[in-house]
Amino acid sequence: MEWTRNADESIQKVPFFVRKRVRARVEKEAKAAGKEIVSKADVKATQARYLAGMASEIKGYQIDTCFGPGGCPNRAVVGDQLLQKIESLVKGKDLLGFLRKRVAGDLKFHHEFRITLAECPNACSQPQIKDIGIIAACSPQFTEAACTLCETCVDACKERAITLDSAKEYPQIDFSCCLDCGKCMQVCPTGTISQGAKGFRVQLGGKLGRHPQLAKELPGIYSEHKVLQIVKDCLDVYTQNSQHGERFGQILTSADFEKIAMRYKLTCLDSTLY
Fold first, then answer.
1. CB atoms < 10 A from the CB of 156, how many?
2. Could you read off the pLDDT of 95-142 as tens digits, one per residue?
3. How many Cβ atoms from other residues are within 10 Å of residue 166's Cβ?
4. Maximal CA-CA distance, the chain
5. Which CATH class is domain 60-137+199-273?
6. End-to-end CA distance of the chain
7. Is the pTM of this model over 0.70?
8. How far apart are CA 157 and CA 29, in angstroms?
9. Distance CA 179, CA 158 (A)
10. Quick check: 61 and 112 in contact, CB under 8 A?
11. Domain spans of the chain, in order of start
C-alpha cells in the first residue's frame, strides 16, 4: 500500500519492536476506510487507538520471523513447522497469566517474552536482541567429487571464507568465518561442496532497554527437536527466576547458560564446534 512521505516519516518514530505491528494495523484500518494512500493523519489516529488498547493486545509473548508465511528468499532451512511447534509450547506455559502475577501495574509490550526465527544469517528479525533468537544454518562439507576450480563458490560467499588451492585443486573453507548460509553448496556445479549439518543456531538473552545486551550463542547447530527442548529449558529458567517480570537476559546467569550448553553438547549436529 502506498504511503505519503510524511506518513512514512511518522511511522519511523514508532519503536522498532512494535513498528511492524503498528504499520500493518495502519494499513488495515486505512483500507477499511476505503483509502488507497496512507497519510500522516491515518498513522496518528491508528497509533492513538493502538496505544490506548495496548493491554488487550498483550498475550505474554511474541514469536515472529523475518518474512512471515512467505518465507525468506535466502532461507537456509525452512522453519515454518518449528515456529508452529514453538508457539504451541509457549502457549502451554500461560506466560500472560505468569506476567499478570509478577508485574506490578499495567503490562506493556516490553514485558513479553520474545522469540524469533531467522531463516538465514542475514537475521532480519533481529535474533541478537531477543530472549531467544534462532537462526537457520546449513554447514558445508566436501565430497570426493572433483573440483573444476570454477570459483562459483568463491563468488557466492559473502564472508570470503572460501579460497581455491590450485596446488591441491580443491576449495578451502575458513570455518571461523563461515556463517552456514548454505550458498556455496547451492551453487557448486560439481557437487564438490555438499550439505553437512543442517538445523538451527540458538542465541539466548538478548535485549534492548536501559541496559541493552546482545544474545549469547550456544555453540553448535541443533535439530528442530533439540531447539524445542532448549526453548522449554529457557522458559523454565525464566518462570522460576523472573520475580517481577524481568527480561530473560537479566536473569540468565553464566551458570544457567553453561548448564544448557553442556546439556546439549553431545546432541548438536555439528560436534566440530566443540
1. 17
2. 999 999 999 988 888 899 999 999 999 999 999 999 999 999 999 999
3. 8
4. 69
5. alpha beta
6. 48
7. yes
8. 43
9. 9
10. yes
11. 1-52, 60-137+199-273, 138-197
